[in-house]
Amino acid sequence: MVRKILVICMILFLAVAVSYNFEWIIGGYPQTKSAIQGNVRDYLMNEQNYKITDIASIDVTYSRKFGDYSAQVILSDEKETKYYYRIDEKVKQSGYNGKTNKHRES
């Protein structure tokens, strides 16, 4: 009887631990990544006046270390540079990585 209770408690503990950390385990929720990708695309097109053809790619990643999402944007005319965007209350550019930075926001 004691063994059965112990097994049930361990299973409950593991179930709670997995469900609480599920986002971390799978590397971010796909629906959240898709929503962020859309928000960044809308920001670039509506607030920064880029055309859809100006955007080569938007890749959203989940940081297990910090527990947040960020977007890496590559623009068609500057494919060797990645621009990083964070989404707090609104979308904002947080940095870039590359030899050039002609689309850097101030």
UniProtKB/TrEMBL annotation:
Pfam families: DUF3139 (PF11337). InterPro entries: DUF3139 (IPR021486). It comes from the Bacteria. This is DUF3139 domain-containing protein. The lineage of its organism: Bacteria, Bacillati, Bacillota, Bacilli, Bacillales.
